[in-house]
Design goal:
The chain is an alpha+beta fold. It has eight helices and seven strands; from the N terminus they run αααααααβββββαββ. The chain has helices spanning 3-29, 37-43, 48-59, 63-81, 86-92, 98-109, 113-123, 209-213; strands at 146-149, 158-165, 175-178, 184-186, 194-203, 222-230, 237-240. The protein has a four-stranded antiparallel β-sheet, with no helix packed on it. A three-stranded mixed β-sheet has the order 4-1-7, with no helix packed on it. Helix 2 (37-43) crosses helix 3, helix 4 crosses helix 7 and helix 5 crosses helix 6. The termini are far apart.
Length: 263
């Protein structure tokens, strides 16, 4: 690729990232309001189809699903830090029906809003200390894919990996484990082959769990994401960079259930 072509390609990507970042800022600023695709695309001076594709390529989610996980993340913060009843929390994050909100919350996180509130408060000031905290299991029908991270998580940190079928918010039960200091981290095997988005989250030793998984406190979480294809014949392998979260990263941690550390 020529220098000119590379510069044009880089310029286009920068413009795309800036457009997606503005759209996400608009979502965050007015979570309780609808954000039609046409309005988001118009602000970026893109056609709705083109904007939808650009947004999905950069974030691995569609605008509608990104908005849904933003609302979920804010709901979790309100449930932890306020005494607002569930019906008011649901209204603040854009749900007209508390019942619909509770059903959506439970479907995505595996627990009800009131159950999450109790679990999150039970964590109190619990901090990562290199111990197994939460683990999900699922009987696999294909071999587990393997991640090779750009940097080995430091010993004492907690590493979580999870898979979602491409373009969905259906996170399969993840794998929490203390860091071994190796850059190679196994994923939980998915139930079937197909296209997936893989995520890795690393909470450093000493960080509060709720800072990382609820409050999005800067410095409490490193993340990575990648697309991969899983087949039933051979386990997939994917390289993934770890970084501090950027504005275009969906708060995937909001999809993870909470559970009190073992006593």
């Amino acid at each position: 690729m020529s220098t000119v072509t590379e510069a044009v390609s880089t310029g286009i990507r920068v413009a795309h990232v800036e457009a997606v970042t503005r759209a996400i800022a608009a979502m965050r600023g007015r979570l309780a309001h609808p954000h039609p695709l046409g309005a988001l695309a118009g602000a970026a001076t893109f056609s709705p189809f083109h904007f939808h594709e650009v947004f999905r390529r950069i974030t691995l989610l569609t605008p509608a699903r990104f908005l849904a996980v933003l609302r979920l993340a804010e709901a979790r913060r309100l449930l932890l830090h306020s005494t607002l009843p569930v019906r008011e929390v649901s209204g603040r994050v854009g749900y007209a029906s508390p019942g619909a909100f509770s059903a959506r919350f439970a479907r995505l996180t595996g627990t009800s809003p009131t159950g999450f509130r109790a679990q999150a408060r039970a964590l109190a000031d619990a901090r990562v200390a290199g111990t197994l905290w939460w683990a999900g299991t699922r009987r696999p029908s294909v071999a587990a894919p393997m991640l090779t991270l750009s940097r080995a998580p430091e010993p004492g940190s907690l590493v979580c990996t999870c898979l979602m079928p491409a373009g969905t918010l259906r996170a399969h039960p993840g794998r929490w484990a203390p860091s071994t200091g190796s850059p190679r981290v196994p994923l939980t095997a998915p139930p079937a082959g197909g296209a997936y988005a893989a995520y890795c989250m690393v909470i450093p030793a000493g960080a509060r769990i709720t800072d990382a998984l609820v409050d999005e406190t800067p410095g409490s979480l490193r993340i990575g994401s990648a697309e991969l294809s899983v087949t039933e014949r051979a386990p997939a392998a994917v390289r993934m960079g770890l970084r501090w979260p950027a504005p275009t990263d969906p708060p995937i941690a909001a999809l993870l259930p909470l559970a009190a550390p073992p006593g």
